[in-house]
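Title: Comparing notes on inverse folding

I've been comparing how different people in this forum approach sequence design from structure. To keep things fair, I'm posting one structure and asking everyone to reply with a full sequence. Here's the target:
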């Protein structure tokens, strides 16, 4: 074989290997970004469902029963899903579970107790006060939820890096 042809084949092999390696690296980066985007979308969906449910609670009595059920089901599903999506910060699922627990006072009053206002005014009035305090707490928890979600919904690299550094420093100091 001609020595020049042999060295050309070797150079071509190296160039092809570098090119394939480059393409593989680009595919890996793309797959990683897609995973981040998918995770971001799932987390953002939890936020949207929670926010939609909280808004619905504010006007629960004026929403038809056909509209209530899907909102509640979607919220319950989002609460359960949050355990997996925010496993490193259990304050988020705990807050959503607390909202779920307090929402029953709102929905229960509207759906069950309000019809007894004339028969049992004291008990109904107490339930109404619980409903109102639950609504007030839920309304205040929206901003708390948003603050907890900032590190997860800040899709930019700078915000993500800053959150990761804070998280690493918490782990080294033993705080959660």
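Reply #1:
Here's my take.
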């Amino acid at each position: 074989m001609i020595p020049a042809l042999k060295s050309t084949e070797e150079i071509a092999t190296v160039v092809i290997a570098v090119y394939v390696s480059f393409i593989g690296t680009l595919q890996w980066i793309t797959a990683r970004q897609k995973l981040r985007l998918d995770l971001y979308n799932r987390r953002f969906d939890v936020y949207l469902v929670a926010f939609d449910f909280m808004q619905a609670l504010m006007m629960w009595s004026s929403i038809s029963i056909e509209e209530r059920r899907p909102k509640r089901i979607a919220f319950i599903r989002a609460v359960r899903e949050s355990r997996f999506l925010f496993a490193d910060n259990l304050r988020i699922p705990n807050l959503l579970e607390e909202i779920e627990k307090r929402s029953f006072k709102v929905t229960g009053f509207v759906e069950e107790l309000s019809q007894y206002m004339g028969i049992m005014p004291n008990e109904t009035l107490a339930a109404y006060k619980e409903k109102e305090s639950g609504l007030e707490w839920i309304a205040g928890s929206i901003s708390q939820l948003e603050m907890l979600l900032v590190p997860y919904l800040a899709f930019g690299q700078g915000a993500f890096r800053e959150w990761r550094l804070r998280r690493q420093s918490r782990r080294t100091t033993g705080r959660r």
